[in-house]
Design goal:
The chain is an alpha+beta fold and about 210 residues long. Helix content is about 40%, strand content about 15%. The protein contains nine helices and six strands; from the N terminus they run αααααβαβββββααα. The strands form two sheets. It has a four-stranded antiparallel beta sheet. A two-stranded antiparallel ribbon has the order 2-3. A hairpin with a 5-residue loop joins strand 4 (about 110-115) and strand 5 (about 120-125). The longest helix has 19 residues, at about 55-75. It starts with a helix and ends with a helix.
Length: about 210
C-alpha cells in the first residue's frame, strides 16, 4: 500500500469512528447534556477519550480530530507531524477585554496533519475532510497553511501534540510557536503580507 492509500484508509477509519459517535453534534448542547463546562474541557480530551466516549466530530473540534488521526497514524507506522495554524487577522489584531478585566488576543485556529514524502518534504492535509487533498504551499512556520488565511505557527511531533490539553497551551503555540518563549515575527509587525495574501484576506473577510 502506498502512502496516499494508507492515509486515505486511516481517514476512512477515523471518520467511521466519528460517524458512530453518540449525542448531539454541537459542543454547547453536548456539554449541557453531559453536565461539563469550561473552555478547557474539549481540549483536555485525549484521542482515547474521544474514541471510547464516542465524542462527535464537531464536539471534539479540529484539535480532537487531529489527535484521533495522529493516534491511528502512529499505530499504523505513518511518520507524521501536527501543524497548528492560526488566522492571520487574529494574530495581528488588537487585544480584547476578557471578563476578568485582563486583555487577550482572541485567536481562531485550525490543526492539521503533515506527512513526509519520499524526498523528506512535508505535505499537509486537513484530516477533517473525508477525502485526502494536499495543501500546495510549502510547509514551514510562518507560511500560509490549511484554511486561508491561516499561518502555520508550530510543527509538533505526535507526542508533543498529545500534551496540548488546555486552551492556553494551544494559544501559546499560536503566539509563541513551539519554543514557548519568543513571540512569532508576524506578531511583532516584522512580517508583511504579500499582495496575494492581502487579496485572500480581503476575499475571506467579505465572505465571513
Amino acid at each position: 500500500m502506498n502512502q496516499d492509500n494508507l492515509i486515505q484508509s486511516l481517514l476512512d477509519k477515523m471518520h467511521a469512528i466519528f460517524d458512530r459517535a453518540a449525542g448531539p453534534n454541537n459542543r454547547v448542547e453536548y456539554m449541557r447534556q453531559h453536565n461539563v463546562s469550561g473552555i478547557d474541557w474539549h481540549f483536555s480530551l485525549s484521542a482515547d477519550d474521544i474514541i471510547k466516549q464516542k465524542i462527535p466530530r464537531a464536539v471534539a473540534g479540529c484539535t480532537g480530530i487531529s489527535k484521533v488521526f495522529s493516534k491511528l497514524a502512529t499505530e499504523a507506522g505513518l511518520k507524521h507531524v501536527v501543524l497548528t495554524t492560526a488566522r492571520i487577522a487574529d494574530l495581528n489584531g488588537a487585544e480584547q477585554d476578557r471578563k476578568d478585566g485582563k486583555k487577550e488576543r482572541v485567536i481562531n485556529g485550525h490543526q492539521i496533519i503533515a506527512v513526509y514524502d519520499e524526498k523528506g518534504n512535508l505535505r499537509a492535509f486537513d484530516p477533517g475532510r473525508k477525502e485526502l487533498g494536499y495543501i500546495k504551499s510549502e510547509i514551514k512556520v510562518g507560511n500560509i497553511g490549511g484554511v486561508v488565511p491561516h499561518r502555520i505557527t508550530a510543527i509538533l511531533t505526535p507526542q508533543e501534540f498529545s500534551k496540548v490539553n488546555t486552551y492556553k497551551k494551544l494559544r501559546d503555540l499560536y503566539v509563541y510557536g513551539s519554543d514557548g518563549k519568543k513571540k512569532q515575527d508576524f506578531l511583532k509587525g516584522k512580517n508583511t503580507l504579500s499582495f496575494w495574501e492581502k487579496l485572500q484576506k480581503y476575499f475571506v473577510q467579505q465572505n465571513d
